[in-house]
Design a protein that fits this description.
Length: 173
């Protein structure tokens, strides 16, 4: 039994170090950083690892608009893709969503979102990162800096202090 436990522990560690990639069927785009998918007959919500998009339904009109723009981009990307895959080690966030990287036709969707200024690097817990995650994180940070420098997407509305310009706050009051 001890040997089986050791093999099991080693296998789990191996899976955590190298995220397993699975083809998925997208059932719904929840928002710019979350998908509802079918993985081998099982329905799961996938939360994009290491990035965050603005929230749909924000009370700030500009944030809501930019969130819808990210969601629309993700919707078009997964709808037009020949293949959609998720790389996950089956860790979950506090809402029960699987955390993972999403690939459309072999390209990392998070990297594309960050490059276009539709997402920002976020939720980085260094102690939980695999080497593969650290590599992606470096790429995401470089793409984010490029988007920020070129004032793409969310960075178009950033002030020097790092805050977004939310001048238009409410409609119809």
């Amino acid at each position: 039994m001890g040997a089986n436990e050791q093999i099991s522990t080693e296998r789990v560690k191996e899976m955590e170090e190298k995220r397993q990639r699975f083809p998925v069927r997208v059932l719904r785009v929840v928002d710019g950083d979350t998908l509802k998918v079918d993985i081998s007959g099982r329905t799961e919500k996938i939360r994009f690892l290491l990035v965050d998009t603005l929230e749909v339904g924000s009370v700030h009109l500009l944030e809501h608009f930019l969130a819808l723009k990210a969601k629309k981009y993700v919707s078009n990307a997964v709808r037009n893709a020949r293949t959609v895959e998720v790389a996950t080690s089956f860790h979950r966030d506090r809402f029960g969503r699987l955390l993972g990287h999403v690939f459309v036709d072999g390209r990392c969707l998070q990297e594309i979102l960050v490059k276009k200024g539709l997402a920002r690097v976020a939720y980085v817990k260094k102690q939980a990162l695999t080497q593969e995650d650290r590599n992606w994180l470096g790429r995401f940070r470089r793409k984010q800096e490029e988007a920020r420098r070129n004032r793409r997407g969310i960075w178009e509305f950033e002030h020097k202090n790092g805050q977004m310009d939310l001048q238009v706050r409410h409609v119809g009051r």
